[in-house]
Design brief:
The protein has 8 helices and 24 strands. By secondary structure, the chain is α+β, with helices and mostly antiparallel strands. 34% of the residues are buried.
Length: 436
């Protein structure tokens, strides 16, 4: 047996000697230290013979030293095969450990890859409570909201009166006549809760008249003439009669307001059954959470997206064309909006049809708008374009119009105008601040 094996065997049996030490040894050794024994006296000069005091050994130190020359502690031989077995077991354990680490690495890589293909924005869908206004159509009640104005003066007046911000959308003044309905607003007469502090507004159509209704309304001021007796006029017919009798003066203004109707004589917007909002709440089944005509509020779902420069925006959905997407989203169908497809009153919005899984309307990343509140080209009317990745594996998170242009130029994405049902597609999606 070689020396190294004997050395290993000796190390293996040392614990046996250690466990055999009596408490007397430690007690006596500690006693010596407590008596002030100098450090240089520890060891053979202290009268310790092996593992005990020499005074306890028969014959003392001399006898113990004589016995050391005649006694040899046998050491059991270590078989090389046993050592080889232990070495193989150690290698096997090392192999298993390496395999486990490799599996952990693969799992982490798979998890990271999975997470990399999913985009989860916080507060993707939040409730937005908006003040309701009361109006009339053909003598019956209408409830509506006002979200946008082409004119800064009216935006400021209405914002102040309803204590909720109306966005300035200058492009709405370019809306063609066929995409507008008419609304009368009173500037004097019977005091009330109308926009200018007098009687409620009068509409010339509702969503029940699908061929003429539009949430975008041209603005006509109604002013009672001197000598006339003001009274509530609650229909287009009554207004025309009063005008014919020279009781009132009608003044068309070059102002367009976005005034989506929520409740009308023949119906109302769909109210979503499941009112619990999460970041995964689907677009379908309605955009309204609650309608309260007593408190005069309506609560919409506000969806999160990006403005042209990557800033966060929120928007609601009130109406759309054609009827298929409108029905899917649970909003009013407005065929008149189709005339905006090539008009500057509508702006481009880019949605994604593949790529990163996310919270957009088609289940992919949120959309990017070409204009946002505060921009000269902001409008609530969206002309929808679809972005598709040529290869899903190359999908990246796009947040700005510059991102879109760069990836299109690189040939990584394709862009086409959306034509569901082979029809022009326009959506009324006012940008709002849901936290005001």
């Amino acid at each position: 047996m070689n020396k190294s094996l004997r050395y290993i065997a000796l190390l293996a049996i040392l614990p046996l000697f250690t466990t055999g030490l009596g408490t007397d040894y430690f007690t006596n050794a500690d006693a010596l230290k407590s008596k002030g024994t100098a450090t240089s006296q520890y060891g053979s000069s202290t009268g310790i013979c092996g593992l005990d005091l020499c005074s306890n050994y028969p014959g003392g130190r001399a006898a113990w030293e004589a016995d050391q020359g005649s006694k040899t502690t046998p050491v059991a031989p270590v078989e090389e095969k046993h050592m080889e077995k232990e070495t193989m077991e150690e290698k096997h354990m090392e192999k298993e450990t390496m395999e486990e680490k490799h599996m952990e690495k693969e799992t982490m890589e798979e998890t990271e890859a999975d997470m990399g293909s999913v985009l989860r924005l916080s507060r993707t869908n939040v409730p937005a409570t908006i003040p309701l206004h009361h109006g009339y159509y053909n003598g019956e009640n209408v409830y509506f909201i006002i979200t946008d104005s082409s004119d800064p003066t009216h935006a400021e007046i209405i914002t102040k009166n309803q204590d909720w911000k109306v966005e300035l959308a200058p492009l709405l003044k370019n809306t063609p006549e066929e995409a507008l309905s008419k609304t009368y607003m009173f500037t004097n007469g019977i005091e009330g809760k109308g926009v200018h502090g007098f009687q409620s507004e009068v509409f010339t159509s509702t969503p029940a008249q699908t061929d003429v209704y539009s949430a975008l309304t041209s603005h006509v001021h109604v002013t009672w003439n001197d000598g006339a007796t003001p009274r509530v006029l609650d229909s287009d017919a009554m207004i025309m009669e009063a005008a014919d009798n020279d009781e009132i003066t009608l003044t068309p203004l070059n102002v367009v307001l976005n005034m989506p109707q929520i409740v009308w004589p023949e119906g109302q917007m769909m109210v979503k059954e499941d009112k619990t909002l999460t970041d995964e709440t689907p677009y379908g089944g309605g955009q309204v959470l609650d309608i309260d005509t007593e408190e005069m509020t309506v609560t919409f779902i506000a969806h999160r997206g990006w403005g042209p420069d990557g800033r966060t925006i929120y928007y609601i959905v009130t109406d759309a064309t054609p009827s298929g997407p409108a029905k899917m989203m649970g909003v009013v169908s407005t065929p008149t909006s189709a005339s905006l497809i090539a008009n500057s009153a509508a702006v481009d919005l880019y949605q994604f049809k593949n790529g990163l899984t996310g919270t957009g309307p088609l289940g992919f990343q949120p959309g990017i708008a070409a204009g946002a509140p505060g921009d000269a080209n902001y409008s609530p009317m969206w002309r929808i374009f679809m972005i598709g990745w040529e290869d899903d594996k190359n999908a990246q998170l796009l947040e700005t119009i510059d991102d879109i242009n760069a990836y299109k130029e690189a040939g990584l994405i394709n862009i086409g105008i959306a034509r569901p049902m082979d029809s022009d597609h326009i959506v009324n999606c006012p940008f709002i601040d849901p936290f005001q």
